[in-house]
Write a structure and sequence with these properties.
- With 579 residues, the chain is of the alpha/beta class.
- The chain folds into three domains: 161 residues, Lambda Exonuclease, Chain A, CATH 3.90.320; 75 residues, Ribosomal Protein L15, Chain: K, domain 2, CATH 3.100.10.20; 249 residues, CRISPR-associated endonuclease Cas1, C-terminal domain (Four Helix Bundle (Hemerythrin (Met), subunit A), Up-down Bundle).
- The chain has 19 helices and 20 strands.
């Protein structure tokens, strides 16, 4: 961690204080290169006793070099623990149980720094190696120098342990302890270090600096942030929807079975989270493996009601949650966040109508534009709630104009199995609990699955998903997840429903009714989940940062921007709105 502190104080804060770590190509390569040294036993003979206690010194030339790998030691004086790749110890032949002098050797994947006259160590390597030497000294060993072995150039570069080096190390240790008390250090400015940093998608250095700049709402410009965030994630959600199936684990593979029949095998490394719908069994071993790899498990009813979540120990960012709880009780902050959330939702509703309505209603579009402006000027939560309610009613009044449920002869059911005449895609207004028509059933399911993804995004950032700013606390309701969901309702949930209906991915025969309630059947849910995930993986150009991200990445990005606002790094939260 002191290596990271010298490299970037913000990176040190994320890894050491908040406990966040992510792999990239560099970290994985470093782990692979350390497999041999990490396999050592970690034993090191005791330091030699002083000459007056040990008797006569050993004869000259009677020494032997001992190599001890993976040696772990600590220093109470420094308050530091180190795991050393290799310690070379010179020992007397007469007494191999004690050593005369030691030299720590650290293995690095890269190359040394090229100085004016000779090869030099990087400052990060000086810190790490110097601390190892001081720890060895505090444990009674004689240590005059250390060595870094650079694998890229196969060179050993020595570091003398001087008083100046020791003073610099003590100064950095004191600075690091001050940083640990917060606040988080500012991001580096256009640093080349950020490009290869595994935590760049968490840190968001360029984005944070852009939004922290004074002035009006930022717009993409020539100095737009570098794309340090990958457009998509390599992992995908796993939806288990077949009633009665059971999922277990074998090694690093999740196995899904229906009784004794193997349905599918999925590598754990390819799974972002597991969603269980209805009567699905998950073995204890599978739950432990998923929690160990940080893969959350979400539970739904057969109809899509979101019950809860199981995950490992991931909520380590207590400082963000302290600020979240403090500001959730601050009325001006809650209103400031809520205004932006509602403004983003109304603007995206207006954009969706403009793009998809057969005959875009000019009067309604003008009213929605005005409602978005009014939301930013709302003087109280009650006034804001009224603005949102009126805008939502106006939007759903024209929602049917975006539906194009023409007859599809290829998938029209036979007369004997055709649903009742009222069982169609007519939309006459929003209803729920239960939804009484196919379109409302799709909307409710889409909102439920999106709420799950917003909850996972909040947890990934370090929030408590149950303490919100617009939605008030209520038992069992993830208020913050519902806050984050507002601007993404039209972008993801309602767009998925329009895609399913207008492109005939679902027809009337995919729905079942029970009393007044209407729900998708199992095959229909499977097609719906596929359409939903395709939408979440769709790549857009971010309107603020001008680089490409998928909606799932954008959702996490918005959660991180909200965290930046709560911790005071940026002056306001800006919602994601498309054009």
């Amino acid at each position: 961690m002191m290596n990271e502190f010298v490299y970037c104080r913000r990176l040190f804060y994320y890894e050491h204080v908040e406990g966040i770590f992510q792999d990239n190509a560099d970290t994985l390569r470093g782990t692979a290169l350390h497999l041999r040294v990490d396999a050592g036993r970690g034993s090191l003979p005791q330091p030699a006793r002083p000459p007056e206690a040990a008797g006569a010194a050993p004869p000259a030339g009677e020494e032997e070099i001992i190599h001890s790998r993976s040696v772990q030691m600590g220093s109470e004086r420094l308050g530091v623990v180190a795991k050393m790749d290799l310690v070379e110890a010179s020992a007397a032949r007469a007494d191999l149980l004690s050593v005369l002098e030691v030299c720590p050797v650290d293995y690095k994947a890269g190359a040394p720094r090229e100085g004016t006259d000779a090869l030099e160590l990087w400052d990060t390597d000086k810190m790490q190696l110097g601390l190892q030497a001081l720890i060895l000294r505090d444990n009674g060993y004689t240590c005059r120098e250390g060595v870094v072995y650079y694998r890229a150039t196969r060179q050993r570069v020595r570091l003398p342990i001087t008083p100046a080096l020791e003073a610099w190390i003590h100064e950095c240790l004191a600075d690091a302890r001050r940083v640990m008390g917060g606040p988080i250090p500012a991001p580096l400015e256009q640093s080349p270090k950020c490009v290869r940093c595994s935590l760049a998608p968490v840190c968001l250095p360029d984005e944070t600096r852009l939004l922290a700049a004074p002035g009006d709402s930022p717009e993409p410009a020539a100095g737009a942030p570098r794309r340090l965030v990958a457009p998509r994630d390599d992992t995908r959600p796993l939806y288990l929807n077949t009633q009665g199936c059971r999922a277990g684990v074998s090694g690093e593979v999740l196995q899904v079975r229906d009784k004794d029949r193997l349905l599918d095998e999925i590598r754990l490394r390819d799974v972002s989270h597991v969603a269980l719908f209805g009567n699905i069994q998950l073995t204890t071993q599978a739950i432990q493996a998923l929690c160990g790899q940080g893969i959350p498990i979400t539970y739904f009813s057969t109809g899509g009601w979101f019950y809860g979540i199981t995950r490992g120990h991931g909520l380590k960012n207590i400082f963000l949650r302290i600020e979240q709880f403090r500001l959730a009780r601050d009325a001006p902050t809650c209103l400031a966040v809520a205004r932006r959330l509602v403004q983003g939702k109304i603007r995206n509703h207006r954009t969706l109508l403009m793009r998809n309505h057969l005959d875009p209603p000019e009067a309604a579009l003008a009213k929605l534009r005005q409602a978005a402006e009014d939301a930013l000027a709302a003087a109280s939560p009650g006034e804001l709630l009224g603005i949102e309610g009126a805008a939502a009613a106006l939007y759903f009044q024209h929602f049917a104009g975006m539906l194009k449920p023409a007859a599809d002869p290829g998938r029209e059911p036979a007369a004997a199995t055709r649903p009742p005449p009222a069982f169609n895609f007519d939309f006459r207004g929003r209803n729920r609990r239960p939804p009484t028509d196919p379109v409302n059933a799709l909307l409710s399911l889409a909102y439920s699955v999106l709420a799950k993804d917003c909850l996972l995004a909040a947890l990934a950032v370090g929030f408590d998903p149950y303490a919100g700013f617009y939605h008030q606390p209520r038992f069992g309701r993830p208020a913050l997840a519902l806050d984050l969901m507002e601007e993404f309702r039209p972008l993801v949930a309602e767009s998925t429903v329009l895609n399913c209906v207008n492109n005939r991915l679902l027809t009337a025969k995919d729905f079942v009714s029970a009393g007044e309630a209407v729900n998708l059947d199992a095959p229909g849910r499977k097609r719906f989940f596929l359409a939903y995930e395709q939408r979440m993986s769709a790549v857009i150009t971010h309107p603020l940062f001008d680089y490409k991200v998928c909606y799932r990445r954008a959702l996490e990005l918005q959660a991180r921007l909200l965290a930046r606002f709560l911790t005071g790094e940026i002056p306001e939260y800006i919602p994601l709105t498309t054009r």
